[in-house]
């Protein structure tokens, strides 16, 4: 979906909501016929569903405080119309009068109910029509406790008893700010009791069921469930208190706080509705949604603080302003959802929009007094509660679906982790087996090494000891025997030095850079190589580059040991072959390159891979301890050089070494 199409869809959605609101507001009002002459009201023919207000005459005094005696002679009475009742939301006095007659053949008892029940004060004056004598005066309204009324109930009731053919005039003095939705009904006691009982049962069922649901939702310890439960509970309290069920029926001691409870429930319902939109649609992560949430919390907190501080008129203005802010916040959130294409759950979003439209319509009718009666309408209550319950069910279903998906993902993850762990254990077990095998091989190599060391050291030592004895017995062969003794002593010393060097390591601190006469150095190496090669009838060749520098700087001891070890290994594994030492200098790299090449036994690929291992010997039957190459590797590394080995089995070996040197 492109951004342009998203914007067009959002505009269509907003236009749709506006059209629906105007459709609600366009419902025609029912206006009474004006300027009717005052006709007696026949109690025998009036049903309980008729509103008697428009069958009466009314008078609005200029000073708001006339006396009843003045009104008996007042001639400014007018038929009651909607314009007379449509007063601003402020306390004022309205006078109503009507003649009641019983044209039946039986005595009648009727209860006149003046609604809404929350009128501040209502006085009823019973007057004899002919003499204009006041027969009785009765009071009701919020200023009169139910226990002080003639009919002890939370509703405003005035009994009217007429014998057959009897007529009486009744004048009502109504002091309140609820004139726009004023109504007067005539009940038989039985009808009223049945109606009141039915409504009480209705309220009791709704409140008890929603209270239990609210407790269950709170026990889920889930913020969204708690918001939905609170939204349900606040809605139920608001609708129940429209008839005073809570403050006049359940808790009579709170009779003076009915308006405050309605204001509290109204602002709480609006705020929880906005919170529900934010959290059920997962908008709390977004900046603007968080700003709206904070604004609603601020308005809600201020409303709570002002409930007990403002008078009734100011409270009604405050609740109108607060709910207007809540509804505007909700429409901003809806627009944000559509513009940002976050409407994945269209059913949930549609239900929230329906509730918003209904609440906004009621708010507009309340503010502008458009057909607002302030009474409880069971159908609307059930629809609103049904919408909230539907939102709860859909959210619970989606949450359960999401939880199942999360459980499935978790099981898949755990399965993958188990497989990964099993594979890791398998690999680690294989590594441990290889390590154990390597340790066993190292142990075998150690035993072989100890045996080889003892043999290698014992052989030259026995020869030294034997030839020393021969010198004593054959003095004429001293030179010959002493030469053999020196040779075996030198070989034994080399074995011991190699063993000690490898055991101690060759630390970098022992590197000694000196100036080397390269020509003399090579000649000395060549003499040694000739001697080593002659042992097994090998021929030694020296290839010396003519461009070699006369002097270089490096560690002469290490260079000598590297070359001698490599030449010694070459002669050891070559019999009646050729040993070649090649040396040249790379001026661009300032490196000394030399190679030792032989035509001996060569090495297999496996032997090449293990060439640097301590105590490893290509030929276990050869002399030495398998320390020559490890020592060479270590010394070349200390001199920051490189070593490359090329070898084929039975084809010979070539070892190339590059050492950085100074000039």
Architecture overview:
There is one protein chain. With 663 residues, the protein is an alpha+beta fold. It has 16 helices and 17 strands. The strands form 4 sheets. Strands 1, 2, 3, 4, 6, 7 and 9 form a 7-stranded mixed beta sheet that branches. Helix 8 runs antiparallel to helix 9 and helix 11 packs antiparallel against helix 12 (478-504). The radius of gyration is 56 Å and the shape is rod-shaped. The relative contact order is 0.06.
Mean pLDDT: 79
Characterize the overall form: rod-shaped
Number of strands: 17
Proportion of helical residues: 40-55%
Query: Ends: how far apart?
Result: 74 Å
Beta strand % = 15-25%
Number of helices: 16
Output the structural class: alpha+beta
Rounded radius of gyration (Å): 56 Å
Low-confidence stretches: 1-10, 22-37
Give me the secondary-structure topology.
Layout: H1 3-25, E1 41-42, E2 57-59, H2 68-72, E3 78-79, H3 82-85, E4 92-101, E5 108-115, E6 121-128, E7 133-140, E8 156-162, E9 167-176, E10 183-187, H4 189-219, H5 223-241, H6 245-250, H7 258-280, H8 287-306, H9 312-339, H10 346-368, H11 378-473, H12 478-504, E11 514-517, H13 518-534, E12 539-544, E13 551-554, H14 556-572, E14 578-586, E15 591-598, H15 605-609, H16 628-638, E16 642-648, E17 652-660
Parallel strand pairs: 1-4, 12-14
Antiparallel strand pairs: 2-3, 2-4, 4-9, 5-8, 5-10, 6-7, 6-9, 11-13, 14-15, 15-17, 16-17
């Amino acid at each position: 979906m492109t951004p342009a199409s998203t914007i067009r869809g959002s505009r269509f959605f907003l236009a749709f909501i506006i059209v629906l609101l105007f459709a609600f507001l366009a419902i025609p009002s029912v206006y009474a016929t004006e300027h009717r002459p005052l006709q007696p009201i026949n109690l025998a023919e009036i049903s309980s569903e008729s509103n008697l207000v428009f069958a009466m005459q009314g008078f609005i005094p200029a000073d708001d405080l006339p006396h009843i005696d003045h009104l008996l002679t007042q001639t400014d009475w007018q038929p009651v119309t909607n314009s007379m009742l449509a007063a601003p939301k402020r306390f004022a006095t309205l006078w109503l009068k009507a003649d009641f007659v019983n044209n039946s053949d039986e005595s009648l008892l009727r209860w006149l109910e003046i609604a809404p029940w929350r009128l501040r004060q209502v006085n009823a004056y019973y007057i004899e029509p002919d003499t204009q004598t006041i027969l009785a005066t009765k009071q009701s309204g919020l200023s009169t406790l139910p226990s002080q009324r003639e009919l002890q109930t939370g509703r405003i009731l005035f009994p009217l008893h007429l014998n057959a053919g009897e007529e009486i005039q009744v004048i009502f003095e109504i002091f309140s700010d609820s004139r726009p939705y004023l109504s007067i009904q005539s009940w038989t006691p039985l009808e009223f009791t049945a109606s009141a009982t039915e409504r009480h049962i209705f309220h009791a069922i709704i409140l008890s069921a929603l209270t239990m649901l609210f407790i269950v939702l709170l026990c889920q310890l889930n913020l969204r469930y708690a918001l939905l439960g609170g939204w349900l509970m606040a809605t139920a309290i608001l609708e129940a208190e429209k008839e005073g069920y809570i403050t006049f029926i359940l808790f009579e001691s709170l009779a003076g706080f009915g308006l405050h409870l309605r204001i509290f429930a109204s602002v709480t319902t609006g705020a929880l509705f906005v919170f529900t939109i934010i959290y059920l649609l997962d908008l709390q992560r977004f900046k603007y949604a968080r700003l709206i949430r904070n604004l609603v919390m601020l308005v809600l907190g201020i409303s709570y603080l002002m409930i007990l501080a403002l008078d009734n008129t100011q409270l009604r203005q405050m609740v109108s302003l607060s709910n207007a802010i809540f509804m505007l916040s909700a429409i901003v959130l809806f627009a944000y959802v559509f513009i940002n294409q976050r409407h994945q759950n269209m059913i949930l979003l549609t239900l929230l929009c329906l509730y918003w439209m209904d609440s906004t319509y009621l708010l507009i009718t309340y503010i502008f007094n458009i057909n607002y009666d302030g009474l409880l309408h069971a159908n609307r209550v059930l629809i609103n509660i049904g919408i909230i319950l539907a939102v709860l069910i859909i959210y619970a279903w989606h949450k359960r679906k999401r939880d199942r998906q999360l459980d499935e993902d978790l099981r898949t993850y755990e399965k993958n982790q188990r497989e990964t762990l099993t594979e890791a254990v398998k690999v680690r077990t294989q590594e441990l087996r290889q390590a154990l095998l390597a340790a066993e091989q190292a142990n075998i190599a150690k035993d072989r090494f100890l045996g080889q060391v003892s043999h290698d050291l014992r052989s030259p030592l026995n020869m030294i000891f034997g030839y020393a004895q021969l010198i004593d017995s054959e003095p004429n062969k001293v030179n010959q025997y002493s030469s053999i003794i020196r040779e075996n002593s030198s070989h034994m010393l080399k074995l011991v030095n190699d063993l000690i060097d490898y055991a101690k390591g060759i630390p970098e601190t022992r590197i000694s850079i000196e100036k080397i006469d390269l020509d003399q150095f090579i000649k000395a190496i060549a003499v040694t190589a000739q001697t080593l090669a002659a042992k097994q009838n090998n021929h030694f060749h020296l290839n010396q580059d003519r461009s070699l520098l006369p002097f270089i700087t490096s560690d002469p001891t290490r260079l000598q040991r590297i070359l001698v070890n490599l030449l010694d290994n070459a002669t050891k594994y070559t019999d009646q072959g050729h040993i070649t030492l090649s040396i040249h200098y790379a001026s661009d790299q300032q490196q000394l390159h030399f190679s030792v090449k032989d035509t001996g036994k060569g090495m297999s690929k496996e032997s090449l891979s293990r060439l640097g291992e301590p105590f490893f010997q290509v030929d276990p039957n050869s002399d030495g301890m398998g320390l020559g190459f490890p020592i060479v590797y270590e010394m070349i590394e200390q001199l920051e050089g490189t070593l490359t080995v090329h070898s084929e089995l039975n084809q010979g070996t070539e070892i190339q070494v590059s050492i950085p040197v100074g000039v």
